[in-house]
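Tutorial, part two.
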Amino acid sequence: MARKVDYDVVLNRLTGSGLICNYHNSGSFGFARDVATKFVGWVGPDDPTIRETMLPHVQRVAEPYAINLSRLMLQAQTELLHDVAWAMPISHWAYELEFGSDTWMPGLLERTGIDPADLRVRNNGSAIEFAIGEPAFETFLLGLLHGLSDSSDFMIAFPDRPALCMVHHHQQLWWMTKEEQLADQLRALVE
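Running the prediction step on this input gives:
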């Protein structure tokens, strides 16, 4: 069952593993500038806004985009990462539940077993933890991929692995890792 992970735990655990927090109190994490980061972009619909420098990292995913992307994420979690997934807003929960995703996010959280009222007061990127292969993770991902607007994105972190994945509002999953082998394995899931 999905559960909340307080932000101080998220911050300490992820920064303790060498990640950096990009914005104060946010769920936006990344690798330090001096870390050779590999990118893999699983992209649904055509998106002319993707920077030219990122096009070599793009892998097209077939329709139905949201379903295929969420299934690929679960496959990556269970077959490659073998770790819980932490889902966090790139901004913070108070923004998402009051402005960014206020019309649909509360219902999505309830369907995953999380009380939105507890998150609505948090101006930080506390995580929702999903166990390996947990069906609620697919429900949550599908909701994000269908509902996110241009002012909202989410980060998926795997606390025991050097892997991050941004759930982009254009129905895209952008992976970042420092492990070349993991990047190759993520590419192979789509190929």
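The CA atoms of residues 4 and 40 lie 28 Å apart. In part three we will examine how such features are distributed along the chain.
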